[in-house]
Design brief:
By secondary structure, this protein is an alpha/beta fold. The chain has 9 helices and 12 strands. It has one domain (2-280): Rossmann fold (3-Layer(aba) Sandwich). α1 packs across α6, α5 packs across α7 (207-220) and α7 (207-220) crosses α9. The two termini are 36 Å apart.
Length: 281
């Protein structure tokens, strides 16, 4: 099957290529290949490549910058998706927990009402609206991968530089290892799924919990010489241009039932990622 992967240089794009099944004849593109803000160029590329499946792992993910540059975020997160959805290929579109407002008393289900509270969330919700009935929409959250630009690697750098860190403790969700997410996406394709699905790693965490685990696991692996002090702080203590959902846990039960997967706790996947990160030097 001819498969086009967008966002090839990103965390998920790389993981999708690394975990691709043997039946996938992959063309992977990034900004140097096709500018997703150029709708005509994107349409022409898709027409020439003639993929049977498009996995859209590209996104404008600069959450705070999107507040002052919503049009650029929309051109990538929504308008480009519309172009992909106009092709004959089946589309797998990757979205985010930021389409929800964070006020739910339970984990968000795929069918729950969206109510984004940031420019990033709004543009991602608009992108979802272009997904067709026969396509696959996958929402995820807190994605990280060895070698990528993410919270884990930022924390490792700061922990190596500072003796003490303050990390937000009142935003709740679950981290997601990109390699695991990629495997789920391929599994959904192989299952001929259609509709909306959620995936994040099992368990629950705040950013503070995540940071503490990063410190403990990295120290155990010899990646940190000293254990920093990590203080829990409130969102109000660390103001940002964009509002973030206070609670964005995703209900992934339907995805796991379909694929027959046993849930893997986020800390287990974190440990695996850190071993890979260590191997990268």
């Amino acid at each position: 099957m001819k498969v086009l992967i967008t966002g090839a240089g990103g965390q998920l794009g790389g993981a999708l290529q690394k975990t691709a099944p043997s039946w996938a004849d992959i063309t992977a593109i990034d900004i140097a290949d096709v500018d997703l803000t150029d709708r005509e160029a994107l349409a022409a590329f898709i027409d020439g490549a003639a993929p049977e499946l498009i996995i859209n792992a590209a996104a404008y993910t600069a959450v705070d910058k999107a507040e002052s540059d919503e049009n650029l975020a929309r051109s990538i997160n929504a308008d480009a998706v519309a172009v992909m959805a106009q092709s004959d290929a089946k589309l797998v579109h990757v979205s985010t927990d930021f389409v929800f407002d964070g006020s739910s008393p339970r984990a968000y289900r795929p069918e729950d009402e969206r109510a984004p509270i940031s420019a990033y969330g709004r543009t991602k919700a608009e992108g979802e609206d272009h997904v067709r009935d026969g396509d696959i929409l996958v929402r995820t959250a807190w994605v990280y991968e060895a070698g990528g630009a993410n919270f884990v690697r930022t924390m490792l750098r700061l922990m190596g530089e500072r003796d003490e860190l303050g990390v937000v403790a009142d935003q709740i969700g679950a981290p997601t290892w990109a390699t695991g997410l990629a495997r789920v996406i391929w599994g959904l394709v192989e299952s001929q799924a259609r509709g909306t699905f959620h995936h994040s790693d099992a368990g629950t965490a705040s950013w503070y919990d995540f940071a503490v685990a990063i410190a403990e696991e990295a120290h155990a692996l010899g990646m940190l010489s000293n254990m920093p002090t990590i203080r829990p702080i409130a969102t109000s203590d660390y103001p940002t241009p964009a509002r973030r959902p206070a609670f964005s846990l995703l209900d992934c039960s339907a995805t796991r039932r379909l694929l027959g997967d046993d849930p893997i706790h986020w800390r287990t996947n974190l440990r695996t990622m850190l071993k890979e990160e260590k191997a990268l030097g």
